[in-house]
Amino acid sequence: MSDVLVCIKRVPDLGGEITLTPDGLGVDDSALGHTVSPHEECAVELAIQVAKDTDGQATVLTLGSSDAVEQLRHALALGCTGAVLVEADASGYGPADVAAAIAEVVRAHEAAGTTYDLVLLGNDASDTGDFQVGIRLSYLLDRPVVTGVSTLSVDGDSVVARGGAPDGGTEIFEVPLPAVLTVMEGGIEPRYPSIPGRMKAKKVQVEEVAPSGTPVGAGRVRLKLPPVQPSQVEVLGEGPEAAGAVVDLLEKLGVVR
What we know:
By secondary structure, the protein is an alpha/beta fold. 28% of the residues lie in helices and 23% in strands. The protein has helices at residues 38-53, 69-78, 95-111, 133-141, 195-203, 243-253, and strands at residues 4-8, 11-12, 34-35, 58-64, 82-87, 118-122, 145-149, 151-155, 158-164, 170-176, 179-183, 207-209. The chain has a single domain (4-209), classed as Rossmann fold (3-Layer(aba) Sandwich), CATH 3.40.50.620. The strands form 3 sheets. Strands 7-11-6-1-4-5-12 form a 7-stranded parallel sheet, sandwiched between helices. A 3-stranded antiparallel sheet has the order 8-9-10, with no helix packed on it. The protein has a two-stranded antiparallel sheet with strand order 2-3. It contains 6 helices and 12 strands.
């Protein structure tokens, strides 16, 4: 039996134009919806699969305000069986602070009789690009860590993790349990919540905890948006006179022959 803790973050849905807060330290989400990153969607899917295959439990955790319960309920609707909200102002928490808060929950649950064989996280945060939480967490828990995982499988007292290699191949790591893994999107297709799953998720009691200690923050100077790429428009002509140019362009693109 393998119990899994999967960590997610409430982030702005960045499908549209991105703007920054006036201080440049975060994404302005005042006019945006919220979701979890694709990396974390895949981490949730892997957590649910591992728990099912090993007769274990998958618990989802997030650090944030009470609004983040929306994302916890979504993961519960997918198949997680427990949820933890570390209630805090996420904007004041840097990677070291988040890792410490997660480690605190892991130790508290362990003392209460629940040991997580796997802790899964997204490889990085889609809003701030922090890649540090998983590695910092592994040091705090004194566990092996594998980053950039696409797929994984539990084999007895170890986990086999697969991810992309720099040369385009596949890297395979086998590490003993318990372990910390960070997940990249692309290796697995996340599922969609069912109506019965959504109804069941509403009834699950979300555990709420308060982190101890004072956060030190990210130490981030500011975020910077990439320059807007200029667009070019080529006018092929007007009216019937443009027909020949359109045909030439379609032939060039391989649309017609």
